[in-house]
TrEMBL record:
Pfam families: Zn_ribbon_recom. PANTHER family: DNA-INVERTASE FROM LAMBDOID PROPHAGE (PTHR30461), SERINE RECOMBINASE PINE-RELATED (PTHR30461:SF2). GO terms for molecular function: DNA binding; DNA strand exchange activity. Residues 36-97 form the Recombinase zinc beta ribbon domain. Coiled coil: none annotated. Keywords: DNA recombination, DNA-binding. This is Recombinase zinc beta ribbon domain-containing protein. It comes from Actinomadura darangshiensis.
Length: 229
């Protein structure tokens, strides 16, 4: 938060804030450089991500105001008209649109099941069995007993693997009995963001003239197929 006389104008201040937020490494929300809608909000001019920043207190603002804005310039990219918007109404809009589309749909978890294939171990065991069998023919007494035991152990293991089923890698869809609205209500900010990303939610923020208050009129909400979830 700035105090005292302003040394930087608002544009420079906000650009610095955007860079700091995107690079921050401390704090509950900043450890990974994220904000609630990072990767969901995009600039309507350049298509770049919108980052979280803060409008500093001034003559018409007693407290800092959280906002989302295009940080193209701060990241060395060109953007003719960087988008910016107050954060709170955008958060509410995204939540409402997302839950309207998916809220009553059950969450289906997709679990990856690895392949079952022992071909590598089978090849090694076959080599061991051949080598041990060749050694056994040349040995007598305790040495032969020891090698014979090793040969039997590997032969038994080889037999079990040859009889084991082989399966390709696959995925399994599991019903959770929980819908998106229920999960959203109990989820932390980072988990909500992941839900939006998993559903392919994308919100484009269009331009506005200074002082315009129609925030939702500037927002375009799209998402992937909600039936996937």
């Amino acid at each position: 938060m700035r105090q005292g006389d302003a040394l930087l104008n608002d544009d420079v201040w906000q650009r610095l804030q955007a860079v700091m937020d995107s690079r921050a490494t401390t704090g509950p929300e900043r450890r990974s450089g994220t904000h609630p809608l990072l990767g969901v909000l995009f600039c309507g001019t350049c298509g770049g991500r919108l980052y979280q920043s803060w409008l500093s207190p001034g003559p018409n603002r007693k407290v800092p105001v959280r906002q989302y804005r295009c940080a193209a310039k701060a990241h060395g990219r060109a953007c003719a008209k960087p988008a910016y918007v107050v954060a709170k109404p955008v958060d509410g809009y995204v939540e409402r649109e997302f839950l309207a589309a998916t809220g009553n749909r059950e969450i289906i978890e997709v679990v990856s099941i690895p392949a079952i294939d022992h071909s590598g171990e089978i090849a090694e065991l076959e080599d061991d069995v051949r080598e041990l069998a060749a050694q056994l023919c040349k040995l007598r007494g305790p040495a032969a007993d020891a090698v014979g035991g090793m040969l039997q152990s590997r032969s038994d293991r080889l037999e079990r693997l040859l009889a084991a089923p082989v399966a390709s890698a696959r995925t399994k869809r599991i019903r959770t009995g929980v819908d998106h609205a229920e999960k959203w209500t109990s989820a932390e900010s980072a988990d909500r963001r992941q839900m939006l990303l998993d559903a392919g939610v994308r919100v484009v923020v269009g331009q506005t003239t200074r002082g315009a208050r129609d925030v939702e009129g500037r927002l375009s909400f799209t998402m992937g197929d909600p039936h996937r979830q």
